[in-house]
Amino acid sequence: MTPTLDTPVSTHSDATAVRQNRTRTMQLMPETLARAQLQQRLQEAESERRAIRLITARRLQRRAERATLRARRALAMAVMQ
Q: Origin, by domain of life (predicted)?
């Protein structure tokens, strides 16, 4: 049987190429996993930094509100005298 355009010819080099590709993929899997884990850690660190900034901003806002209340009280006391 002669090969035609419709029937692919399977050769030894095709099998070798597939095997090498599979081997290369298997070798790159730990690198891919490490990259994914690093990306996840970076996202977690960024999320934690945002949370810390939010907590700090809220703390500063409460401090400013207390200072405003003290200033209002001081002004009220000054007006009453």
A: Bacteria
Cα–chain center distance at 69: 41
Give the torsion sign (CA, 50, 53, 59, 63).
negative
Provide Rg for the chain, Cα atoms.
34
- Residue 68, CB-side half-sphere exposure with 13 Å CA sphere: 6
- Domain-by-domain residue ranges, the chain? 32-81
Instruction: Supply the pTM of this predicted model.
Output: 0.56
Q: How many residues can be counted in the chain?
A: 81
Tens of pLDDT, residues 60-70: 999 999 999 99
